[in-house]
């Protein structure tokens, strides 16, 4: 067989780096700050809600295609509670679609909205499923690079660069705020400019807001709340990051009935439906009091501070994240400039696993000296990691 088994669209995407690094963590006994999953499960009462649903026979058979009404109502109520003052609202019957995590929401949105050859602008470095899903949909990705500013210790979107990236073939912008892996929370001004550009050039925007509740400085502003954006924005949320149940894979899309209908056309032939009993539990989780959401944020802010201080003391240049549960660092002050080589030897040298940011770039040279650490771990784990990193 001369012809490769894996098709040309996917050939460039090997096994994800997370598998390699997690295996390395297991082999060396290193602390895994690579993959971003919490090492403590979410609220007990939410777990109990899932058990109750299973026992009571709710969701054990195919739930409705758009998601159970209880969850769609809870998503709409959540949007109203947190963003109603910005003019955000959605109809639970026609403007909410439950998906198998944000991952399926991203895939279904791209598969639904792209024609082969359409260009998609995405902020680089990007979440690893974006490039593969754009490719599966036959689109062409056009990265716009977030630039690190060592002075401010943060990343910024160059709005001129974004504007220049739009061509006659651009169909949509795939946005992510708060941004994984850099921790950037796009400002009101930046979002207003993205909105203006989208309206002017008649672009759709898919906005991945799975870290909406993990904002430590500034505030999360849904892009859909900006003038002219309601009818062109697909907003994506997920229970995984907000409730620390990443294994449940319950996500959602909110958008106009027309956009939700389009995304559902693709979604129905991917998973059709998923996570029946968990949908009931997530409906309850979304209704948790504000103190749950602020508690989660305050807890992660404290963890960010532990890891950021430890990494700084160990000699890294730290880009202090305003949101998410990741910290991006520059390894050049430690005398290294290749994040891949650095991460492959870090478990041996310091007993910690991290991820080279270059995997999130098309322009790999731009990402070469940066390395990402996750801080959604127990405090004692972070303190031990910080102690170990002082060996460097
Ligand atoms: C974790 C993550 C996702 C995937 O969310 P799931 O609900 O687990 O599918 C999507 N986008 C970003 C930016 C993420 O960090």
Automatic annotation (TrEMBL):
Task: Report the principal subcellular site.
Answer: cytoplasm
**Domain of life of the source:** Bacteria
Q: Which SUPFAM superfamilies match?
A: PLP-dependent transferases (SSF53383)
Q: Where in the cell is it found?
A: Cytoplasm
Q: Which GO terms describe its biological process?
A: amino acid biosynthetic process
Task: Give the E.C. number(s).
Answer: 2.6.1.17
Please name one Pfam family that this protein belongs to.
Answer: Aminotran_1_2
Q: What are the record keywords, sorted?
A: Amino-acid biosynthesis, Aminotransferase, Cytoplasm, Pyridoxal phosphate, Transferase
Q: Which pathway does it operate in? A: Amino-acid biosynthesis; L-lysine biosynthesis via DAP pathway; LL-2,6-diaminopimelate from (S)-tetrahydrodipicolinate (succinylase route): step 2/3
Entry GO MF terms? kynurenine-oxoglutarate transaminase activity; pyridoxal phosphate binding; succinyldiaminopimelate transaminase activity
Question: Which reaction does this chain catalyze?
Answer: N-succinyl-(2S,6S)-2,6-diaminopimelate + 2-oxoglutarate = (S)-2-succinylamino-6-oxoheptanedioate + L-glutamate
- CDD domains in alphabetical order: AAT_like (cd00609)
The record places domain Aminotransferase class I/classII large at 30-389
Cofactor(s) named in the record: pyridoxal 5'-phosphate
Which GO cellular component terms are attached?
A: cytoplasm
**Homology family:** Belongs to the class-III pyridoxal-phosphate-dependent aminotransferase family.
Subunit comment: Homodimer.
Describe the task this protein carries out.
Answer: Involved in the lysine biosynthetic pathways. It catalyzes the transfer of an amino group from L-glutamate to N-succinyl-2-l-amino-6-oxoheptanedioate (N-succinyl-2-l-amino-6-ketopimelate) in a PLP-dependent reaction, yielding as products N-succinyl-l-2,6-diaminoheptanedioate (N-succinyl-diaminopimelate) and 2-oxoglutarate.
- Name of the protein this chain belongs to: Probable N-succinyldiaminopimelate aminotransferase DapC
Organism equals Streptomyces kasugaensis
